Amino acid sequence: MKKNSIYIVLIAMMLTGGLAGCSDSFFVRPPQDQLTADNFYASESDLRMATAPLYNTVWFDYNDKASFTVGDSRAGNMITTDAGYEQFLLFSITSGNDRLNEAWRSLYLAISQSNLTIKNIREKAASGIPDESKERAIAEARFMRGYAYSYLAQLWGAVPILTDPAKLIDQPNVRRNLAEDVYQFAINDFEYAAEHLSPTDDPGRVTQWSALGMLARLHHARATFRAEGSGNLDQEELNTAKDYARQVIEESGLSLLDNYADLFKLENENSEESLFALQWTYEGSTWGVQNTTQAYFAAEAALTGVGDGWGGGTGVSAWLLQQYAPNDQRRKATFMLNGDHYPELMQEEGGYTYEGTGASGPGSAIKKYIIGRPSDNDGRVGFMRTGINTYMLRLAEVYLIYAQAELGNQQSTSDSKALQYYNAVRNRAGLSSKTSITHHDILLEKWKELAYEGQNWFQLVRWHHHEPNAVLDFIDQQERNMSFEYTQGGDTTYTEPPTNITAEHSDFNLPYPEADIVQNPNLMEEPVPYDFSNQQGAGEANKQ
């Protein structure tokens, strides 16, 4: 099937006025009949509805499969029979890969819809709406735009910075902008969001703390980016990342949930640990407003009770399995092994016990975001539909960013605050405190904390910026195609891989999608600087 270029999709969106919203109680939108941008932005509640699709629809293609593929399969977390995931796992990805195209398309859809929202609020919002409310709505849109560009910067490096899709009609052959400028553009958006978002808001809406948390993440990422293989992280960026993380941890009043497994239950959605999560609904017939993760990764159809549950061919990699201590409470909440019992699943039958085998499949299954049948969730499950949120930023990650930024260029640190925040994450998992921590300690702690949340590959990208050869050695030691058979209470049998999977330095920037290269040959030209003179507006063009 011929894939559409993202530029064709963006222009179509612009001409048709954007995307439909979802239908749950948080993101209700009115009937679309006789509704236009000229008469919609009439009240503060209209602004709230205008930003609602930015929390789900535009991210659907990324969440549907691409997030796991890019963030976890490429990181080495999976063993799988799915060819689409496997290309990322084995570093054999081509520019025609469906997951690659979905990631690129979804990120630019989020950008385009954010741009349209900003433009319409500035040009169409009623004069009687308080400026503070307009700025808050624009800040939500800029937060989403910044988030999408933060991913593009880390996955592709130099990409086009687009702020007005309408100009694509007259100027479709846009140039890429420098990766440094893409980072800066995203940071500028988060700074605006931090200034204009409220400290508190309705559950699920991003807040000032969400933006500050993202600034901590992105400044730490840029500290590695600016190292350029030298092994020395940018100290100014580290200090900035640490300060933003400190503000979130010490001034927000937010805290970690007591039980790690509770993070992935419907009743704890939008808890105080969630700084940004995509908001999904299981209701209705509109495609693209639901979370489909359970359909693809539930170990078997019996688990979901609605006809999906196709995850029998995908499970945890042998390498990831070996990173968890026997008493790490995150392990069972993250993936299933033979004999694991889950009382919250298939409750009417007394719970669910996983009995996968190494001979017929991976011998394990993903647990995160698997919530079970309709009867386990007050009916809130359908075929390829759950309403469980997708975490995009959690407070636990900010704790660990603080520790990373404090460690910086040192071999180890015993800084009291860094240890306090690092050990808070470990202690919740049932692990003992450490008195000194290294880069490797924090890397693995963050890895286990965020496994199957689409974040681990980004850790390797950041590490590769400042210690590229060390990352290649790390990947080599993962033995990515090793299989295993696990017996609860017994020995785990590992089968050595026939050949080892290795990575090249070029693998740390994803290829540009084939359809976009054909549509826009300038995508392969040298990147150019971006003109930041009017980033706040929705209509500035990238420098040609």
UniProtKB/TrEMBL annotation:
| Keywords assigned by UniProt, alphabetized | Cell outer membrane, Membrane, Signal
Matching entries from SUPFAM superfamilies are given as: TPR-like (SSF48452)
Task: Tell me the compartments it is located in.
Answer: Cell outer membrane
Q: Which Gene3D superfamilies match?
A: 1.25.40.390
Return the Pfam families for the record: SusD-like_3, SusD_RagB
Q: Which residues form the RagB/SusD domain?
A: 321-525
Query: Hey, which family's this protein in?
Result: Belongs to the SusD family.
Protein known as: RagB/SusD family nutrient uptake outer membrane protein
**Which organism does this record belong to?**
Fodinibius salsisoli
